[in-house]
Design a protein that fits this description.
single chain; alpha+beta; 4-stranded mixed sheet; 4-stranded antiparallel sheet
Length: about 500
């Protein structure tokens, strides 16, 4: 769990909590336990997740201090346990279609015949892979009762791809290759070689070139210009009998499956309870006061993400608050692929629009104006607007903000992502004293998130949350944080802007 928390801090960027304002209670379904005392009412957790292209960058770059020693960790650091689809304490072989655990290791080194899981995590994990593993164990390309294979997310063959180089005297203990010759290095690159393809680990041995000669050039990057690479598909078998990872859970049917936060706290069981008082039920007719008959859960989860068709405007509800048991077969642990929920949505979010025919994006190049709504669909990260929509959701507004919402078919529909779904009103559906939380998972850099908020200094947008004024709240925070009146590196402050992040008085 400590490593999970570290990964959330390093790669998921921001966690924000929102507690509902107490309201006068006139409902006969009022909780038996006073709201100011600990009780048995499950929390309501709404994930707000960005879909910006930066989530598909490498998880471990050369500009991070991973271990907190105030030094940038450039290159592979064997003392650090890298989090990812591979077990740092296993050695892996590749069978032509996937990596599989070959044997365990106490020191993360191998015998010269296999790949170190720790090294593979450092080399191959994207930020989205880390999100998926933390939340539900990872994206499963094979999900049967006897086998589970995790697949790395699609990475277009452009600047989203990344490379690593291996030198030094321990390459033969971390890979099945010998150490590179003097003055040379092994080059490793992670990319997808066709649209939607599983990404590959591309390998060139004994090169005098540096990794940027291959991975940081005009696209296509990581091509055959420096020689013909060895390609290893980035799939990995997990929860294999006798080689279980620490997040493998055995289900009643006997299967072991990798799990994350959602299964640990959201699966519950097949027991049905009324959402308003959590008493047993068999159908909605057994529940009073607008309650619904739902599967019991320790935490009820919901999801808002950014959209592709309105990539510069807010976000949309992908799943109402409910039990993750709706998305998982509680006997086998397999995912229910027919259910369009949190897991299925996060599995389908990807970079779209890259054309391998001419190594460009479908919207071409724009150099003389700002991008428009619906262009460059994988760009745009209006997290503040998405968070505002989450506040509206918990305020029982019941309908989406029209300027954010998608009502016609487009990219979201073609990706089979849920959209234009009917909102529940959480506090009509769950007990009034249920504690609401919003957890934001995003790259640290937001964009297009200051023009469609009530009280914005940059527009006349009108919302429907009483007493919500973005400018006033920002001023209040700035005053408490000693920001107001000082100079900070920022793109725009009031009417002062130069299209660059330079020092400006705030």
């Amino acid at each position: 769990m400590k490593r999970v928390i570290l990964c959330l801090l390093f790669f998921l960027m921001a966690i924000s909590l929102f507690a509902a304002k107490p309201q006068p209670v006139t409902n006969p379904s009022y909780c038996a336990v006073p709201p100011f005392l600990p009780g048995n009412t499950p929390p309501l957790v709404l994930f707000v997740v960005g879909k910006d292209h930066k989530l598909f960058y490498e998880a471990y770059n050369d500009a991070m201090d991973l271990d907190g020693d105030d030094k940038i960790d450039v290159g592979y650091k064997h003392s650090f346990d890298y989090y990812g689809y591979f077990d740092p304490y296993k050695c892996y072989k590749h069978d032509g279609s996937k990596f599989y655990p070959f044997y365990k290791t106490d020191d993360k080194y191998c015998r010269g015949d296999a790949w170190s899981g720790n090294l593979l995590n450092w080399m191959t994990m994207s930020r989205m892979d880390v999100i998926r593993k933390v939340l539900y164990g990872g994206y499963r390309s094979t999900d049967t009762t006897t086998s589970t294979v995790l697949e790395g997310t699609y990475i277009p063959q452009d600047a989203h791809s990344w490379g690593k180089e291996l030198t030094g005297g321990d390459v033969d203990k971390l890979t099945p290759y010998s150490d590179p010759d003097s003055g040379k290095r092994h080059l490793m690159c992670v990319t997808s070689l066709s649209d939607g393809a599983t990404r590959s680990l591309r390998i060139l041995q004994n090169k005098t070139n540096r990794i940027w000669d291959w991975a940081s050039k005009e696209r296509p990057v990581c091509d055959n210009s420096l020689g013909t690479p060895t390609d290893l598909t980035l799939n990995v078998e997990v929860c294999k009998s006798g080689m279980l990872e620490e997040n493998c859970k055995q289900y009643p049917g006997g299967s072991y499956k990798p799990v994350g936060v959602l299964q640990t706290y959201g699966e519950g069981n097949d027991v049905l309870v009324c959402s308003k008082n959590f008493q047993s039920c068999s159908s909605d007719s057994d529940c009073t006061n607008n309650g619904k008959c739902v599967k019991k859960s320790d935490i009820f989860f919901g999801l808002i993400t950014g959209s592709y068709d309105k990539n510069m405007s807010g976000g949309i509800v992908r799943k109402n608050l409910g039990s993750i048991a709706d998305e998982v077969d509680l006997n086998t642990g397999q995912f229910k692929t027919e259910v369009k929920g949190i897991i299925d949505t996060l599995n389908k979010i990807k970079i779209v629009g890259f054309k391998y025919s001419d190594n460009s994006y479908e919207d071409g190049w724009v150099t003389n104006r700002a991008m428009n709504e619906g262009e460059f669909k994988s760009w745009g990260n209006p997290i503040a607007e998405m968070f505002y929509e989450g506040l509206r959701y918990f305020a029982d507004k019941g309908t989406a903000t029209s300027i954010y919402n998608i009502t016609t078919t487009g990219t979201d529909s073609s990706l089979q992502l849920p959209y234009n779904i009917s909102w529940i009103k959480p506090f009509n559906y769950f007990p009034p004293c249920s504690k609401p939380f919003i957890i934001v998972l995003s790259d640290i850099n937001t964009s297009f998130d200051s023009d469609q908020l009530p009280g914005s200094n940059f527009s006349s947008f009108t919302g429907d949350l009483s007493n919500f004024n973005a400018k006033n709240l920002t001023d209040l925070i700035g005053s408490h944080e000693n920001i107001n009146g000082l100079s900070w590196f920022i793109g725009q402050s009031g009417v002062t802007f130069d299209t660059m992040c330079t020092s400006k008085n705030v």
